[in-house]
Amino acid sequence: MSAPMEDVMDLAEKLRAGDRRALARAITLVESGRTDHRARADALLEAVADPERQALRIGLSGTPGVGKSTFIEAFGCMLTDQGLRVAVLAVDPSSTRSGGSILGDKTRMERLSREPLAFIRPSPSQTQLGGVARRTRDAIALCEAAGFDVVLIETVGVGQSETIVAEMSDLFVLLLAPAGGDELQGVKRGIMEIADLVLVNKADGDLKAAATRTVADYAGALRLMRKREGDPEGYPMAMPVSALDMHGVDTAWEAMQVLAEFRKETGFWQARRTEQARGWFEDEVRLGLLRRLQHDPKADAAIETLRSDVAKGTRAPSAAAAQVLDILLPK
Amino acid sequence: MSAPMEDVMDLAEKLRAGDRRALARAITLVESGRTDHRARADALLEAVADPERQALRIGLSGTPGVGKSTFIEAFGCMLTDQGLRVAVLAVDPSSTRSGGSILGDKTRMERLSREPLAFIRPSPSQTQLGGVARRTRDAIALCEAAGFDVVLIETVGVGQSETIVAEMSDLFVLLLAPAGGDELQGVKRGIMEIADLVLVNKADGDLKAAATRTVADYAGALRLMRKREGDPEGYPMAMPVSALDMHGVDTAWEAMQVLAEFRKETGFWQARRTEQARGWFEDEVRLGLLRRLQHDPKADAAIETLRSDVAKGTRAPSAAAAQVLDILLPK
Fold first, then answer.
1. Pick from A184, A218, A277: CB nearest B317
2. CATH number for the domain harbouring residue B195
3. Does the CA dihedral B108-B114-B119-B125 come out positive or negative?
C-alpha cells in the first residue's frame, strides 16, 4: 500500500506533476498510523513543500438533507468547466460509524467524479479528532503541491469538526436548507461565528419563498455581529442558491472570489496562512511531546491519579501539574 | 509583600475563615511571576482545595459605555442585601495600557466596595493572556475557598478574554447598550455563542423603546442558534435591565438561578466543572513542559529557525515538529 523510502522522491515528483493516482497514494501514506509510514510521510511533505503553490481552501459545512452532495457536484463542475482543478476532501470523524454514507456521496457526485480536473477523497477510517485534523492538513498540503486551484473541505458538522475545518480553510461556507419559523434553531452554536457565507440551498420550486425568508433571517442575525476585521462591507453574507437549477451558484462563487481577493490585497490572507502554519507547528510539537513523554507506565499511573484528584476537586490543577512535570522531567 | 513558606498555612487558615485581607494577600501571591512565590502559591492552593466550597461563577462581558460598573454595583448590592457574599474579579489583558480605568471602576462602585460581604479585586498588571487566565483561575479558587457565594468575573472583552472568562465560568452574561438600527453590528464574533443571558442595559427613560427593540433583535438572533444541550427551553435568553432604576436586575438574577439549578439537576453543572478542572490541569502540564524544555538557548535558536521556515511555507509543520522533538528530547 505505502511506498518504501526510496520511492518517496518518485512519488513526490509524480505528485508535483499533478498525477491523481500519486496524490491518492500520498494521502494514504499520510493517513497511516504506523510510525515508519509517518517518517516517510514527513519526508514526502518536506519534498513537496512549496509556498508558491496555493489553492483556495474552502471549508463547507452542511448537515445531511441540505443537499450538500448536489451542491458540491454543481459547484465543482462549474469550476472544472472554467478549467479549474478541484479537490474535494471529506472530514467526518464519525465516518467509521456511518459507514457507507461517504461512498454514497461520491457515487451521487457522478459527473464531478468523472471530471479529469477533479479529485474526490472520502473520509479516512480514523475516528480520533486530532488524527483527522492532522490528516486533513497534510492532505490539503498534498493537493496544493499537486497544483489544485480549489480545495473544498467538507464536513457534516459532527462535534468540533466545523471549527477544525474553518481553522484550515481560507473561507468558510455554511450550507442550509430553507426552514419554516418552527424549524429554525437548527444551526449549531459557534458556526454562525465562523461562516463567511451562508448559502440557503433549494431556493427553487415550492421552497423558493421559504428560502428567501430564511436568507433574510440569517442576514439579520449576521448583521448583529461585528464584521471580521479587514473584511469588506456586507460580509459575512447570506444568499439563496439552487444547486438543482444552478441558480446563484455562480453568484456565490463570485462572492467567495471577492472576499478572497480583498483579503489578499489587505495582507490578511497571507497573515492568516502564516498564523495557521505556526499553529500547526505548535500543535505538532505539543502533541509529539506528550506522546513521547507519556510512554512510561509508572508515570502514566501517577498522572491518572492526579488527573482524577483534580477532577474531584481535591487537588489544585496547578499544583498537580507541577508534580506531573517532576515525574516526566526529573530535575 | 508575599508570605514565606511557614506563613502559607496561617494564610490558608485565615482565608478559609473568610478574612478578606488574607484573600487579597493570597491573590497577590498567586499573581506573582517569581518561581519561589509560585511554589508557595501551589502549596496554598493545595491547602485550601475543597470540593465542598463552590461559588456560582458568573462571567460578565460588556464594552465601555454599556454601564457595566453601574450594573455590577446594582447587581452586587442586591446580592449582598440578600446576605450573599460576592467577589468581583476583573480580567483585562490590556490593563497595563489602559492604566487607571479599573481603579476608576472600583471607585465608581462606591456602595459595593464598602459592603462587608463584598470583595472587589482590580486587574493584575500582567499583559500576557496565558498568565491572566492562570491567575484568574487561581483567584476564583481562592474566593471559593474563602466561602464566597457568587464570583463575578468581568471583562471588557479585549482579544480572547471573553472565551477565557466563559471557560472558567458557570454562566456567561453579555451586557449591551440599546442600539438604533445602524448601530448594531457591535457584538464581537464569537460572543453570541457563549452567552447564556444577553442583558440590554439602560432600559429606562428615553432609551426604553430602543432597549425593547434591541432585546427583540437579539432574541431573534439567539433563536436561530440551537440551544445548548441540556439547557431548558428559552435559553440563551435576552432581556432588558435598568441598573439605574433597578428594573429587571432581580429578574436577571432569577433567570441565572433557574439555569444554574437546571444544570445542577441534570448533572451538566458537575460534568462541566470536572471538565474544566481537567482542562486546567492539562493546560498547566503543557505550558509547564514547554517552559521547562525551552530554556536551552541552542534549542531555542533551532526552534526559531524551524518556526520561521514553517511560517514561510518552506518546511512542512509536521516534519519540522518532529525535528524539534528530536532536539528537545534526544533519543
1. A277
2. 3.40.50.300
3. positive
